[in-house]
Amino acid sequence: MTKTWAVLHDRNARLFLTAVTVSGFGTSALWLVSGIWVKDLTGSDGLAALCMLAMWAPTLAGPLLGALADRVPRKPLLIGGSLLPAALLPVLFAVDSPDRVWLVLTVLFVYGAAGVVHDAAESALVAGAVAPSLLGGFNGLRMAVAEGMKLVAPLAGAGLYALQGGPGVALLDAITFLLAALLYAGLRIRQSRPDPVTPPTSTGSEGEPSRRTPVGAGTHHIWAHPILRPLVLAGGTTMLFAGLNGALIYAVIDGLGHSPAYAGALYAAQGAGSVAVGLVSGPALRRLGERRFAAYGIALTAVAAGLRAIPSDPLALACSAAIGAGLPCVLIAALTAVQRETPDALLGRAVATAHTLMYTPNVLGLAAGAALVELVDQRPLSALLGVAWLATAVPLFQRPASAARIASRSPSDANPA
Question: Facing residues of 203 across strands?
Fold first, then answer.
């Protein structure tokens, strides 16, 4: 609790966390309602799952988008990354029939792209504003407040959707982004000098030669690093299976005999699990280390995903809570390690690259799951998914490779994605 209080005592940390809470409420509501909205308009589980795919797809361009956080002042990027969705979301007022579902998917795609830039700028700013010893606790609290919105936002979003439809939820989300922009404007952070864009022969403000580092520098840094590489790869594998699992959600609900709106209850249970693990992640990281903390989280998530093959309301809610507790572990561990082990000049690209390597497989999993759920029964899919997912935790329990061995490998030796 001492570390948690130390994080909350910092003014900038409080503003960051409040902004994440406010915008996270709107995002969680829209994330749920977009799927329900499309499901109601079209009756298709696959198209409903494509809403999540549209939001995650921009992570494919993470290294390119993340470079903005190293070459443009980061605080204005945070503000702009909030104002863009606020201006775009009212477009969804035009969606009133199945033939306009493409507007939902387009808006969610741009929404996701703005989120990639926003997350890179935020993580880079936080790394300089919060002491390294507190980063694990801060990231855990950030995850707790963001995911914790699933305790209230999905139910509130589903209720608002029942009263006002999808456009009402879109307006709510736009308002939350405007409030977040105001909170980010209040940050007091000394801006670091962006990565220079001048030619190599020119000089920087201090008279030293400056050279623009390439967009791929973040990928090289992560791939060559003995701590970051296994954590990010484990995160990518985990998110691949998370995408498959997420695409099955409406089929799970059908198997339980409920309407699509029951997703709100499942996401609320998942949010409760995420809040719990977020509050204890700082002490857990210090006690277990990044690798074991991530491994235990993956194992818990895998077992819960597999048990979704059993049609039971209490079990479904318990599995959602377990997934909420287990899934963030590897993401918190990997992000904290990236922030600690990366120079400031590369941090925006490194964070965005880590997000790409972890979340791109989620896009692939969502796409594969959206196709499989139309062809194969959900129960055997869930059981097989749980077994395969559990196997991915094993390497993190083993002794890590030496720094010299990993550093000697070229990034082209294998595909990090």
Answer: 209
**What are the tokens at 268?**
């609320």
Q: Which residue has the tokens 């910092």?
A: 10
**Beta carbons within 10 angstroms of residue 303's beta carbon:** 17
- The per-residue pLDDT for 179 is 93
Alpha carbon distances (Å) from 202 to 68, 110, 132, 292, 325: 21, 36, 34, 47, 50
- Torsion angles phi and psi, residue 400, rounded to 5: -70, 155
Global confidence as pTM? 0.71
Pick the closest to residue 304 from 323, 276, 332, 327 (CA basis): 323
Residue 32 has a pLDDT of: 78
Give me the pLDDT at residue 234, please.
92
Q: What is the pLDDT of residue 5?
A: 64
Query: What is the pLDDT at residue 207?
Result: 34
Place of tokens 């020119």: 202
Q: State the helix-helix crossing angle for 11-42 and 45-56, rounded to 10 degrees.
A: 150
**pLDDT in the model for residue 215:** 62
Instruction: Tell me which residues of the chain have a pLDDT lower than 50.
Output: 2, 196-211, 402-417
Q: CA-CA distance, 366 to 219, in Å (whole number)?
A: 24
Whether residue 401 contacts residue 226, with contact meaning beta carbons closer than 8 Å, is answered with: yes
Rounded distance, CA 158 to CA 33, Å?
Answer: 6
Residue 209, strand partner residues: 203
Q: What type of residue is 312?
A: S
236/267 Cα distance (integer angstroms): 22
Look up residue 204 and give its two tokens: 């920087």
